[in-house]
Amino acid sequence: MEEWTMGEWTPNTYFDSLYESDRDLERVAERLQAEGMRDISVAAGYGRLLTFLVAATGARRVLEIGALGGYSGICLARALPEDGRLVSLELKREYAELARENLTAAGLGDKAEYRVGEAAASLEELKREGARFDFFFIDADKENYPHYLEACIALANRGAVIAADNTLLGGKTIDETRQGPSARAMRHFNQTIARDERLQGVHLSAFDGLALARVLSGMPD
Ligand code: SAM
């Protein structure tokens, strides 16, 4: 179904207009602009969904792959209980620092830990440490999504939820003439979400697509 519009309204702008403005999230967008960084934060509607899911699942330990300016980090960390923790993996030191500043400004600094470097290396390090998580948000380099999914499953408590952004890649995922590494990796990732017996998966098609999966394997918490 084509997405409808009504004058200036789209479904997304309509729903966004219902919510109070959010100073902590606006600050992230302002800081990204001031630093001349591209604002590729998760869509506002999916940010609200992340907050909702962390709260609804009662997740205490959350792992994020791809921090940028801390927009999704705020959405995740604000739903954590008092003793909850967000671990965020980010390639670039300046992004991790900006994210940390924005979480601190939002009063969430004491809940977040940033690990700088290739996410694959940080995931190995977390595995060696015996870390376990209840909720994951994958939002970094797309060609590594299948690898990140396996790493998240290995770090998951049973029943943990994995969310991943940009599963449509602006349409590239569906266009079979696109055979680059990101499109191929995302097709593989989406198939795994839909079919892997260790997961109960679902795909959402709004914005650039979001996958959700519940991990059926893994250790009980
Ligand atoms: N999740 C963020 C949000 O919604 O606010 C947006 C993340 S942005 C789409 C992707 C981020 O992944 C960038 O900050 C980028 O530097 C980071 N990234 C890309 N490749 C990475 C890698 N190999 N390891 C860790 N982080 C990576």
From TrEMBL:
EC number: 2.1.1.-
Cross-referenced InterPro entries: Cation-dep_OMT, SAM-dependent_MTases_sf, SAM_O-MeTrfase
Pfam families, per database record: Methyltransf_3
Gene Ontology biological-process entries: methylation
Record field: transmembrane: none
GO molecular function: methyltransferase activity
EC supergroup of this enzyme: transferase
UniProt keyword annotations, A-Z: Methyltransferase, S-adenosyl-L-methionine, Transferase
Protein's recorded name: O-methyltransferase
Organism: Cohnella cellulosilytica
